[in-house]
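Input:
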Amino acid sequence: MSDQPIIVSASPHVHSDRTSKKLMYDVVIALIPAFLVSLYVFGLQALLVTGVAVLSCLLIEYLIQRYILKSAVTIGDGSALITGLLLAFNLPAGLPVWMIVVGSLVAIGIAKLSFGGLGYNIFNPALVGRVFLLVSFPVQMTLWPTAVENNTTLVDAVTGATTLGLIKEGVQFGQTITELSPQIPSVTSMFLGITTGSIGEMSALALLLGGLYLLYRKVISWHIPVALLGTMALMTGIFWYVDPEHYANPLIHLLSGGAVLGAFFMATDLVTSPVTKKGMVIFAIGIGVITVVIRLFGSYPEGISFAILIMNAFVPLINSYFKPRRFGSKIKVKMV
Amino acid sequence: MLKTFPKGGIHPPENKLTADTPIKKMPVPRVVYVPISQHIGIPAEIVVEVKQKVEIGQVIARSGGYVSSNIHAPVAGTVTKLDMIVDTTGYKKQCIVIRTDDKNESNYQEPEFPLIPEIAMAPEEILQRIADFGIVGLGGATFPAHVKLHVKADKHLDCLIVNGVECEPYLTADHRLMLEKTDEILVGIRILMRALHIERAIIGIENNKRDAIERFRERNPKGSGIQIAALQVKYPQGGEKQLIRALLGREVPMNGLPLDVGVVVHNVGTVFAIYQAVQHNRPLMERVVTVTGKKLEKPSNFWVKIGTPITDLLAEAGGVPEGTRKIVSGGPMMGKALKSTDVPVTKGTSGILVIPDDEASRGEPRSCIRCGECVDVCPMGLEPHLLMNLTEKSLFEKAAREDILTCIECGSCSYVCPSHRPLLDYIRFGKSITKQLQTKSA
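Output:
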């Protein structure tokens, strides 16, 4: 035997090799395709926004833990890195650097650490940061640089409206979808991500690739993305079927805005989503409904961030109502 | 699709290093240490004195009540001491120490046990024999077998399930026994069917033991009423409730027993012990123990006399390897870590596992990220993260309402937790306090 004392601990004596750190870095890996697309269409600006968001999230977490909380520093666990990435993905390219830092401060300082840090936060930190910026700086937050293929510049020339913004405004001013359609990007360019919007929400294709990777690695399950996108498709589909001149078709709704990013990366955040599969479905349907209501009837063109935050608040309730069935309860004794 | 239980479960690396290693007889130990409490229930009462000579198979401690069991001398020799010694549970237990008489031939000349397929005994005689011969559940729970076989008149029993699942990683004792004692086990099943007055039995075996499944199918006579069922490999399928659910689709009601759904479950090792007792007059004095570990020189399956020190077993398997940091009695999922190897093999010892340094420590616990993995894998439909949380806050009444007492302590939750949280440690603690509170208030 070795010189070290023998370890006596309770069973189990083996452990799966999955760790929360690995889960976090899987999420980071899954975000890479979307990040590459953003580099391609927004050039160095995307790099700047993402870099500032990630660095400021890490630094703010470090400073708060080190000097205010005087607790263990956990910036290596990957969660602040993800918050930074997701925050950047929800911002327009070209946002002033100081605003990004403010957003990071709100995300990490208020939404995460003041609740007790990783695992204790009720709301998705990145979304709290983004929504804070959106309501504080509505002008800068809706100044969308237009995508330029193979962009290498740092200064943006042209800004434009997002697809959802276009439709919202157009319909409000009495235009029909048919009249607006020359301005709406093609489904292909929306799918590939050559449109306008937040840095990371552009390319449905890239996000789906990342989402599939998360599903394959079992970091997330299909329940939230499928229920969320399904609800959105169904609801927008009904409105579009009834009045196609005032409501865009479901495909436009699914491919534009933050639908895919939200469904695969924001709503599936482990900490702020329900624990059981049943609960996840209820949660996702709630997000889908609220998102569509905001998109179609609210004052904002896009509502998925608000919808996710609202449903985040219901998670404890969902968890206590939708429990797994206990073995041996509610059964009829079956004789074979 | 192979059968399995529908909710929860995990698939840890199997590591069945000794699956192809035939069972070898351990040399007769010079001294045996026989605890009088090797079963669940009341300890047996010692009926021998110091310096008394005992014969092999002689009763040395008599059943202390209904839920108790006789204990027999595993060797012929002299009682040298009645002592308190630590056993595999970590607690001190009363123990009978016998020095083997090396001149007594019965210690070294084992009788032959030719297969006896005809069953001569009447059902009541069989039940009495099982009680008298110290048979307890050898799968690990060590519940006295005769108690399980006592079927109250108001229960309708229609099926015997024989547990050959051996879902714990590393362990191969049952696997080897099924391969080497196939016919004996089949006769043992018929003995039990006769004692229970039933026509139907199923042997459940996980599909990683194809050879055992084939062997049983080959040897099983037509019209025996015995069915051999291959099961998908999934832990904890060897749990009674999971196994019944997997094989018959019946769910034992919460706080109920297998009998409530017409089933009795026995482990293959127990069935073999019953065969030996009924057909060959052999009380339970030895069992198969898997001695294993990745760094062990000669991982083996041994026939071991009850009371043999684990130190002897490890020596026979090549000695404790350099860098061992943990020694477990049982499998890695539910076994107990030992403080010392100076403890004896008892009726419930299915394996000894030595774990090297790099696998012996737990990961550092981090915050719960509410991923829900523990909920997904819990075969009992519980919410381990919640139960741990409630126990941490001493909310035991709430924990009871969340059915903490139905936890079977399989450890699947702790196994999967990506934040290395000691879920089962807390749940065990919560269970014991909850039980105490309930007995107090009752």
